[in-house]
Design goal:
The structure is a single chain. 21% of the residues are buried. The strands form 4 sheets. Strands 1-9-8-4-6 form a 5-stranded mixed sheet, with no helix packed on it. A 5-stranded mixed sheet has the order 10-18-17-13-15, with no helix packed on it. It is mainly beta. It contains no helices and 18 strands.
């Protein structure tokens, strides 16, 4: 008689823990507004079968709809994560935050917009001067040139000018918040007006001086 036997085994298969997620990445942000808080796109953590550590450097992160935090915590497979940080305060500045999940890292990079060159100043005026002496160099009150972020050409017709208490001349370049003074010679005749016209980056203003209508009598 042939004897036969069968063996039946029961039990579960042990699956080793996988704590290394698939690679993930954040879309870089360009032309960001300086000094603003920028949030990345969401990434889904995949490829793990156990809770793994998550941490961030130079920023904050949020898991799912949770609050943004900086402290280390854990994340599980299929959860979504996003990061945020403040953009650079300078033009063309780069700021970044690094998220690490289970030993796998990705960098979220933010680049601010390039500076827009502005050579057109705010409007400015020179107060006229009246009853001045004849044939005399007359200076305007100093004004501040504002609204530009690059050195801007200055030209004049009918007089000279000085920038930031410098030498008087007929051409030069001025920077934001520097002072500008115009000088011209008053007329040789009574009650006459002379003018000097200044052009700063295309913005024009005129300084005028008028001599006294009557000759000054200083003889008692």
């Amino acid at each position: 008689t042939m004897l036969t036997a069968s063996v039946k085994t029961t039990g579960s298969v042990l699956i080793p823990p996988d704590t290394t997620p698939d690679l993930f990445s954040f879309t870089p942000i360009t032309n960001a507004i300086a000094s603003t808080l920028i949030t990345s796109n969401e990434v889904t953590i995949r490829g793990i079968n156990a809770a793994v550590p998550i941490s961030v450097a130079d920023g904050e992160y949020a898991v799912g709809s949770g609050a943004f935090i900086t402290a280390q915590s854990t994340v599980t497979n299929g959860q979504q994560v996003k990061v945020r940080r403040t953009a650079s305060a300078t033009s063309n500045g780069i700021a970044s935050a690094t998220l690490t999940v289970g030993g796998v890292s990705a960098i979220f990079t933010i680049t601010t917009a390039a500076a827009v060159l502005d050579s057109i100043p705010d409007a400015f005026v020179f107060a006229p001067k009246n009853n001045v002496a004849q044939s005399t160099p007359i200076d305007s009150a100093p004004i501040n040139i504002t609204g530009i972020n690059v050195a801007t050409p200055v030209t004049i017709v009918g007089g000279t000018f000085a920038i930031a208490n410098g030498m008087f001349g007929e051409s030069g370049n001025i920077s934001n918040n520097q002072t500008l003074v115009v000088r011209l010679n008053s007329a040789a005749s009574l009650g006459a007006t002379t003018r000097a016209t200044v052009n700063v980056g295309g913005v024009v203003a005129t300084f005028s001086v008028t001599t006294a209508a009557l000759a000054l009598d200083t003889t008692p």
